[in-house]
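During the first year of the project, the team set up a workflow for recording each protein of interest as an amino acid sequence followed immediately by a discrete structure-token representation. This format lets reviewers and collaborators read both layers of information side by side without switching files. As required by the reporting guidelines, we include two representative entries from the current panel. The first entry is reproduced here exactly as it appears in our internal archive.
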Amino acid sequence: MIHEKKDFTARYGQPLPSSIFTDTALESAPKLLGQTLVRSTEDGEIRCKIVETESYGGVEDKGSHAYGARRTARTETMFHAGGACYVYLIYGMYHCVNVVTGKEHDPQAVLIRAVEPLTSRDAELMKLYRGKLPAGKPANLSNGPGKLCRALRIDKSLNGCQLNQMNGPLYLELGEDVSRLSIVQAPRINIPYADEYAAKPWRFYIKGNPYVSIDDKEAVPYSI
């Protein structure tokens, strides 16, 4: 089900608080829920509500690409000041998009795991870009990091673009009041190599939203 814009319209086009980009990834990950990811294309703008995020913060996080201060051509964007977009490729075929946060040289990134199109028009454009969808629920359109990148035509050409500048090809704008959302937290997904960090409850999502990739039955409430 696509939720048409309601009270969202009163906040349309407003920037996010700067603190979301300057805070650590762990602080920013839950605050990004309910906010709007905007993709500008030749067919028009697509707006989606962020419904699931994961935090990857600091050189001590064994789940992070920058663990141990690993600074390579791939991870360089993670070391930028907050506001940059970090896009990488996994399994040689799926892109993932992250919001870089925190101070320069301190690698902090929030993975956007799932989004919900705000209107039926947004959903139709996303379906066009995804191509033939697998059978199942409509949320399969963007209920995972690789899926949403395909649906929004996000690839490595967008790596490093500024998400806090609202005139670029991909950016963030103010969405719902996060304090009114029902948020839960649970362990991150598919990082068994992270040892003790694999169990950290650093995945955040909006409880009950159909676009969330995986509903953890042991998730616990989180308050902002």
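The second entry, processed by the same pipeline in the following quarter, appears below.
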Amino acid sequence: MIAQSSKGIAVVTGASTGIGAVYADRVAKRGYDLILVARNEDRLRRLADQLANETGRTVEPFKADLGRKDDLARLETRLGDDAGIAMLVNNAGIGSVASIQQADVDEMETMIALNITALTRLTYAVAPAFVARGAGTIINISSVVGIAVEALNGVYSASKSYVLSFGHSLQKDLADKGVRIQTVLPGATATEFWDVAGYAAQKTSPATMSAADLVDAALAGLDLGELVTIPGLQDGEDWTRWEEGRRVLGPKFNHAKPSPRYQLEAASAT
């Protein structure tokens, strides 16, 4: 197969299966060469070979456990050294459905390292080159539980709230530099996430979206210029109103005195 000229290199983390594997397929078909990152080397190489054969793109498998500092550092160096990187899809992550009474705190720390620290450091690794060129795309995979925080494990929800907040900040800092930032909030999606999280039955629920539909909708949202894409939200105006309300609330925090509802003046007078 003779491939069209490359649009640059897209880096996809958590790429060996599920949402990441679909992203790899779709961005390759959009004309990007690939660096695919995952822990499972066998799956990773099979997918790399398949996509290279099907699309004619150059596909580099990069075995790494991004929860490990040494593996993460290797990938940061790889990304920082390559001027051809044009897109980063921060998809790698793990989840849990366990409550604070059931979950192991060391496992929660591992989740934070992958869902927050790795995503942040990889974003920092590519951003300087994107800003210097005035072009580049960063797609960060959050979750609807970043808003509906009571739905699953609290640390998982909080980690996805971080991704959403981080995306807002990146949009503020980088939008006028030519760098596109999109935050994607999947709902329940039929992937191995649920096996790892301990609730495999969710994969077959009527409310669970396929990974293909999720990624196709997310990329359509990117094409539309959406800063935040929530594929399962049927009325986009619901998000617009929610976000407008959040931004209206912000300036109302700036007061040097506590609210009268706390009745501090009355208490001090007695």
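For the second entry, the following points were noted during internal review. Residues 9-236 form a domain with the Rossmann fold fold (CATH 3.40.50.720). The radius of gyration is 20 Å. Both points are flagged for discussion at the upcoming steering committee meeting.
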